[in-house]
Amino acid sequence: MEPRPTVVPPPIQLRIADDIRMQIERGELKPGASLPTLAEMADRWSCSVGSARAAVALLKAQGLISSGRGRAPVVRVPPRKVIRSSERHQVEKDLAARPQAERATVGEAETNHNMQISEQKFRSRYDQIEAGPNLAALFRIEPTDPVLRRRYDSTDSADLLLSSSVSYMPIALISSNPALLDEANEPWPGGTQHQLSTVGVEIMTMIDEVTARMPTTVEAQLWGLPDGVPLILCRRISLDANERVVEVSDAEYPADRTELRFVTPLKPWPKRGKPSGRQGGRS
Amino acid sequence: MEPRPTVVPPPIQLRIADDIRMQIERGELKPGASLPTLAEMADRWSCSVGSARAAVALLKAQGLISSGRGRAPVVRVPPRKVIRSSERHQVEKDLAARPQAERATVGEAETNHNMQISEQKFRSRYDQIEAGPNLAALFRIEPTDPVLRRRYDSTDSADLLLSSSVSYMPIALISSNPALLDEANEPWPGGTQHQLSTVGVEIMTMIDEVTARMPTTVEAQLWGLPDGVPLILCRRISLDANERVVEVSDAEYPADRTELRFVTPLKPWPKRGKPSGRQGGRS
DNA sequence: GAGTGGTCTAGACCACTGT
DNA sequence: CAGTGGTCTAGACCACTCC
Q1: In chain A, how long is the greatest CA-to-CA distance?
Q2: Are residues B60 and B86 in the same domain?
Q3: A69 touches strand C (CB under 7 A)
Q4: Which candidate from B97, B273, B280 shows the least CB-CB separation from A185?
Q5: With contact defined as beta carbons under 8 Å apart, do B246 and B173 qualify?
Q6: For residue range A165-205, what is the model confidence (pLDDT) as tens digits?
Q7: Long-range contacts of range A195-200, CB-CB < 8 Å, 24 or more positions apart?
Q8: pLDDT digits (tens, 9 = 90+) for A12-25
Q9: A266–B206: do the CB atoms touch at under 8 Å?
Q10: CATH of the domain at B188
């Protein structure tokens, strides 16, 4: 006979955490407000301080509260989100076709995404590595073929990451213009799309693949991420007119400060083929 | 004078968790492999069992391992990701213009996203609510104006969520076809785009806004999510030819099983305006 | 049944925050 | 300096897995 699973009351930490979460959702605890102290919680739910602490840890892992030594835990106030729109793809492409003077001025603004120029430090590092099985499959080259890896990151005054990305291009594709292999030429006026144009490549399609995961301890430290905040991962694949993959770029964004926006234009319905019938449903 | 922060050795739990994480990244611990028992860890790092347990909890919160009563913690094996592509937007629009017979057959397949029809249960609930400030601003209507809310979710045989979404449309936009207000007409052959076509609306642009956050305890339970797996949030806004917002839909996806794909076609460069200059860099 | 991890407790020590 | 939360320990009890 199947052993019916023992009905077990939910752990105290869960009860506490859920009670507090509901208080937050109902607005009884507003963003910025302080939670009860551990001792008060232990008293209110008649449990040990350790269990109360476990409940606080749970809420932290869900990104709902912040806490630190000597400070009562606080309901986290959601930071304003920076919007990164796919319309930038077209803007950058248009820019790449403009004369050098114009590229230079706008090119600089591109790197400062919605932010004061203030105290940012940029870094770009180029090197050449073997494609490896993963990239080789995308580029349709041999795993031992060389690719140019370009790593970009910008940090603020406290050395916390503001943005970080890696880009890959097959060496065979770009070697006809040696300037593309030298990181001393960064920042390149007009960006990657203009770089590729110098070797006769025009990007016709961009594919963005988006997912998310929790950061490791070191990643959380580099980004200055509070507990319970995921990283958004975005791989951007650039195709030319022949559907050939010409660039792959991986970027990471802190989920609490980032919203990715993708705009998809749809083709109009044919003039005569307009949908008909006002009644739908089961027929 | 600024009090230089005391240099404090990193907590034992962090050292343990980081050591194990690096073993996983180096491949010394492969997906599916068992971690040492808590007692062994306590011995190896000469700490208490409690600290070893804290390290395991950290790795769980990062989504790297799974653990349960009586079982040694195990390196998590990443599940295959279901790809949800924005190209579906165009496919559904094309479908909406097809004759009823065709819509009916394909409409069913649409709901089964890449999965056997097997044991899924679908549910759709319609109701009418006040727009509220948030939706009112999007639709450019009054906060007290009514909107149709449609909630869809599908669950597997164990009642775990497979997909979940909510959609909003202003009542004023669709009330000329009462069939649209009745959930008994679900599933509607041809989907939302055909529904809107019956009231003279053609969607010309879709905007997807993507971010991520950690699930609450109850959400993790509903989805059957392991610890340390974020939820991907996607708000889809549909515009007609006049840039009027006609539908808003919010969907959630488990990040470990989901990859969102967005395809952006770029307009070709003008024939004569091709970018020039083989040399870039600082000018 | 032996061994495992999950929950919970109690208490010590330390780093940090406020006043 | 009093009070707070963060770290760490030791030990009890329970539910579960595996042999």
Answers
A1: 80
A2: no
A3: yes
A4: B280
A5: yes
A6: 999 999 999 999 999 999 998 888 888 999 999 999 999 99
A7: A195/B280, A196/A169, A196/A238, A196/A246, A196/A247, A197/A96, A197/A97, A197/B274, A197/B275, A198/B275, A198/B277, A198/B278, A198/B279, A198/B280, A199/A173, A199/A174
A8: 999 999 999 999 99
A9: yes
A10: 3.40.1410.10
8 A C-beta contact, residue B126 and residue B181: yes
Is position A4 within any domain? no
**B70, closest nucleotide (Cα–C1'):** C4
Question: Do B62 and B129 lie in a common domain?
Answer: no
Last residue of a domain, one of A21, A55, A75: A75
Residue A239 sits at φ, ψ, to 5 deg, of -115, 145
**pTM, rounded to two decimals:** 0.90
Q: How far is CA B39 from the centre of its chain?
A: 38
Report CA(A241)–C1'(D8) in Å, whole number: 61
CA B72 to C1' D15 (Å) is 14
B182 lies within 8 A of chain A by CB: yes
Token look-up 């491949």 returns B27
Asked if residue A57 and residue A127 are part of one domain, the reply reads no
| Same domain for A113 and A48 | no
- Is A60 strand, coil or helix? helix
Q: A106 and A146 share a domain? A: yes
Dist. CA A20–CA B258, nearest whole Å: 30
In a domain, residue B221? The reply is yes
DSSP letter at A53? H
Q: How many domains does chain A divide into?
A: 2
Same domain, A22 and A145: no
Q: How far is A110 from chain B (nearest CA, A)?
A: 16
Q: Could you tell me the mean pLDDT of each successive run of 10 residues in chain A, 283 residues long?
A: 58 94 94 93 94 95 93 93 94 86 62 57 93 96 97 89 95 95 88 93 96 96 95 97 96 97 93 53 39
Q: Do B216 and A281 touch (CB under 8 A)?
A: no
Q: What is the span of the domain harbouring residue A16?
A: 12-75
Assess if residue A138 is contained within a domain: yes
Specify if B39 maps to a domain. yes
Q: Which residue has the tokens 């803007």?
A: A91
For B77, residues 6+ apart whose C-beta sits below 8 A from its C-beta are B31, B32
A69 lies in the same domain as A192: no
Q: How many residues does chain A have?
A: 283
Chain A residues touching residue B207 (CB < 8 angstroms): 261-264
Do A213 and B255 lie within an 8 Å CB cutoff?
yes
**Considering only CA atoms, which residue is closest to the C1' of nucleotide C6?**
B69
